[in-house]
Amino acid sequence: MSDRREPDAAVWWQHGVVYQVYPRSFRDANGDGIGDLAGVLEKIDYLSGTLGVDAIWLSPFYPSPMADFGYDVSDYCDVDPTFGDLATFDALVAAAHARGVRIIVDFVPGHTSNQHAWFQASRSSRDNPYRDWYVWRDPKPDGSPPNNWAATFGGSAWQRDDLTGQLYLHSYLPEQTDLNWRNPAVRAAMLDVLRFWLDRSVDGFRMDALGRIAKDPLLRDNPVNPEATGDFHKAMGDYDRQIHVNDQRHEDIHGYLAEMRTVLDRYEAADGRPRVAIGEIHIYDLSELGRYYGATLDELHLPFNFGLLKLPWAARAIRDHVDAYEASLPPGAWPNYVLGNHDEARIATRVGVGHARLAMLLLLTLRGTPTLYYADELGMEDVPVPPERAQDPWGMRVPGLNLSRDPERAPMPWTAQPNAGFCPPDVEPWLPIAPDLAQVNVETQLGDPRSMLSLTRQLLALRRASPALTRGSYRALDWPGLPDTCYLFVRENAEERLLVALNFGDDALEVALPDGLHATLLLSTRLDRPEAAIPGALALRPAEGIVARLA
Ligand code: NOJ
Ligand code: CA
C-alpha cells in the first residue's frame, strides 16, 4: 500500500469510515440475550457489503465483572466468555480482513477492574510488589480522602480499603481502579497489551479515557468551580463543582502517548500495514485538542473530535466549528468527526428523526474520518428503559440528571420479528427492544429505497467512490444574504469538485448560486430527486441536504 502513495493519497484510517459496534447490543448468536463476537461475525457481510464500512471498532469484549459493561477489564489478553473466546475473535479478524475491513479494538489504559489480578495483589498488603501499580494514599488525619477529586460516576474518587487502611483512586466506579502510569512497570505492561492484540493482527486501538492516565504528581486538590457547570456537554452533578485540572491531562500524558505510538509504528514499519491510534479525550478547546497529535505527529493519529456532540444543531454553529477545527489542525494532522457513541444520546433523538438524515450527510461529507455508531444508519432513537430494567451504573449512582447511557445501547434491530432478530424471541434481551421496531430495522429499511438505511448506503458508496470526499480539501462558502440556516461547502481535489448544501432549518430555502457555479445534483437526503442540473438557484426543502457535482 505504502509504495502506491500519491501526494494526496490516503491510508485506510484517513479515507475510510469507522463503524462502532457495542458487542453486547449488536447480535446475540448463542441466545442468552447478550450480543457476542460470534454475532458480529454473523453480520460481517452486512458491515462490509450491505453497508460498506472500512473499519469496525469493537467496544471492550475482555473478561470483566461488567460493573461498567466491559470498561472494567479483569484480563486484558482474553475474551469474556459472555462474548466468546480468542478463537472467535481470530475468526472475526480473519473474516474482516478477507473483506478488506479493519478491526480496531478498545484499549482501556487508565483503570482495571478491581478484580484484575494486579489489583488483587496490590491491595493485599502495603509492601506487595504490585502496590505501586495503583494509587494508594493514607486518609487525612481527620479520616477524609487525600484530596477533593470527584469521580465521574459520582462521589469521591477515593475508596477506603479496610485491608490496609489506605484509600485507592478511581476516576470512575470504585470497581474501576486507576492504574499508576507514573510507574514504568505499569507502562511496560500496558505496552505489552498493545503488542498482544497487534500480534493478533488488529489494525488499531480506540484508547479509552486517556486524560486519566496522567494526573498531578502531587495529587493537589482541584479548584472549586464557581459556575458549577462543567466543560463537558452534559450536566454531571457534583462532578461539575470542581475544575478538573489536577485529576487529568497532566503534561506527562504526551510522553505516554508517544510511547504507545512507538509500539504501533514499529508494527507498521515491520509489515507495511498502517495502524491507527484513536484517542478518547474530551477536549473542546481546539488548539488544545490539536496538541494530542503530538509535536511531530508522534502521538494520536486521531484524537476524537467530539465537537458535533456539544454544539447546537444550527448551521452557523456547526460551520464555525468546522472552520475553526480545520484552521486549528497542526500541519499534516488528519481531522475526524463523531456524531454518536455508547456514551451519548443518539443523534436521531438529539436532532429529530428528520434531521438525522442531514446529520448523516454532514458526517459522511466533511473532510476527515467519520465514526458511525451502530444503528444510527437506521435513524434509531434512544430507547426508554424502565427503572426495573436499568443497567448503567452512572444513571443509578447519579440519579435525576438523565445520565443513564442505557437508552443508546438498546439492541440492534435486524428484523421486525419479536426481539428484532437480535436474540431468540423467547429470551429477554439485556436491554429492551425499541418500540418503533416495525419501521426501524435493517430488513424493512433494505426493502425501502427511501429509508434512512438506503440513504446511509448511498452516502457511503458515494463517499467511497469520490476522491474529493475522501481526500479533497474543504472550504465553506458564504456570502452576504446567505440564509442563516444554510451551510454550504466545497470538497475538491484535482479530479473533482463537489458542493454540499445543508438546510438546518424547518422551512424551505431558495439559495441563488453565485454566477458561474454550475451544479448537477448527485444525491439528496430525501432520495427522491433524479440526478439533474441545478438551475441558478438551489431549492432545499426543510432539513434537506444535497451533494452536487460542480462543473
Ligand atoms: C469512556 C467510555 O466510553 C465509557 O463508556 C466508560 O464508562 C468510561 N470511559 C470509563 O472507562
Ligand atoms: Ca450471547
So how many helices? 16
Q: Rg to the nearest angstrom? A: 24 Å
* Ligand catalogue: 1-deoxynojirimycin, calcium ion
State the secondary-structure class.
alpha/beta
Shape type: globular
The main pleated sheet reads as: 8 strands, parallel
**Into which percentage range does the β-strand content fall?**
15-25%
Give the number of DSSP strands: 21
Describe the structure.
With 551 residues, the protein is an alpha/beta fold. Helix content is 26%, strand content 16%. It contains 16 helices and 21 strands. It has helices at residues 12-15, 37-42, 44-51, 86-98, 117-124, 184-199, 253-271, 286-290, 307-310, 315-328, 347-351, 353-365, 393-397, 442-446, 452-465, 467-471, and strands at residues 18-21, 55-58, 102-107, 111-113, 136-137, 158-161, 166-169, 176-178, 204-207, 276-279, 302-303, 336-338, 369-373, 473-477, 486-492, 497-503, 509-512, 519-524, 533-534, 537-540, 545-550. The strands form five sheets. An eight-stranded parallel sheet has the order 11-10-9-3-2-1-13-12. A six-stranded antiparallel sheet has the order 14-15-16-21-18-19. Strand 6 (158-161) and strand 7 form a beta hairpin. Helix 6 (184-199) packs parallel to helix 7 and helix 12 runs parallel beside helix 15 (452-465). The two termini are 32 Å apart. The protein binds 1-deoxynojirimycin and calcium ion. The site of 1-deoxynojirimycin (NOJ) has 9 residues, from loops.
